[in-house]
Write a structure and sequence with these properties.
Length: 206
C-alpha cells in the first residue's frame, strides 16, 4: 500500500480577514462540510518558511538559540526564515538564511523533508534542507536585529541532539523534523538519494 497526501479543497461560502499583521494574517472561512452544514475555521495565513539542517564534517549539527516570545522559552533551533519574496526559489532563501544567521555557506544541498507545521491552525509550509560541506562565509557578518541580537550559536553531535529531542529537552519543530528525518534516512541508507535541492514543492511553487 502506498500512502500519499493529496490536494483537496472544500467549498468556502464566505471568508474574511479579521487581522492582518506584518508578515502573517488570520483568516476566517465558512467551510461547507460533507453533509452540507457550515463550519467556521480560523487559521493563520503564512508565506512559508525554509529551515536548514547544517551538518559539519565532524557530524555536528549547527544550532542557534534564541528567545521565542509566544512560548516564553529560549529554544535551540536550526537556522530558518520566512519566504519573504513571493515565488522565491526556496534554496536561495535557505542559503541566505544560513549566511545571515550563522555566517556559514555549504556546497552540498539536498531536500530533507517538507512539512506543514500546524495544519489545523495554519497554512505554513516548511521545506527543510540538509546542507553539508560547510565553510565560513566570506564578507561582513549580517547585522542582526530584534531577538537575533541575543542569538547564541553551537555545534552539537547529531546523536546528542536526538537524545535531547527524545528526552523532551528540545522542542523546536524544524529541529525535530530535520534531525529525526536525517536519522531515519541514514538508517535506510537513503541519504544520497534524497531529493535534489531544486525539487518541486507544490505547497510553495517557485
Amino acid at each position: 500500500m502506498t500512502i500519499r497526501d493529496t490536494a483537496d479543497e472544500w467549498r468556502v461560502r464566505a471568508t474574511r480577514t479579521p487581522f492582518t499583521g506584518h508578515k502573517t494574517s488570520v483568516r476566517t472561512d465558512e467551510v461547507v462540510m460533507p453533509d452540507g452544514s457550515l463550519a467556521g475555521r480560523d487559521y493563520q495565513v503564512h508565506p512559508g518558511s525554509v529551515a536548514i539542517l547544517a551538518l559539519d564534517d565532524q557530524d555536528r549539527v549547527l544550532l542557534i538559540r534564541q528567545y521565542r516570545h509566544p512560548v516564553r522559552h529560549r529554544l535551540w533551533e536550526i537556522p530558518a526564515g520566512l519566504l519573504d519574496v513571493p515565488g522565491e526559489n526556496p534554496l536561495h532563501a535557505a542559503q541566505r538564511e544560513l549566511y545571515e544567521e550563522a555566517h556559514v555557506k555549504a556546497e552540498d544541498w539536498r531536500v530533507l523533508i517538507d512539512v506543514y507545521t500546524s495544519p489545523g491552525g495554519s497554512d505554513e509550509a516548511v521545506r527543510i534542507f540538509l546542507a553539508r560541506d560547510l565553510a565560513e562565509a566570506e564578507g561582513a557578518r549580517f547585522a542582526s536585529e530584534d531577538e537575533e541580537q541575543d542569538m547564541e550559536h553551537a555545534r552539537l553531535p547529531l546523536d546528542e541532539v536526538v537524545r535531547g529531542l527524545l528526552a523532551g529537552d528540545l522542542h523546536n519543530t524544524c529541529l525535530a523534523a530535520g534531525v529525526l528525518a536525517l536519522t531515519a534516512a541514514r538508517g535506510a541508507n537513503a541519504v544520497e538519494s534524497l531529493r535534489p535541492a531544486d525539487a518541486p514543492w507544490p505547497a510553495r511553487p517557485f
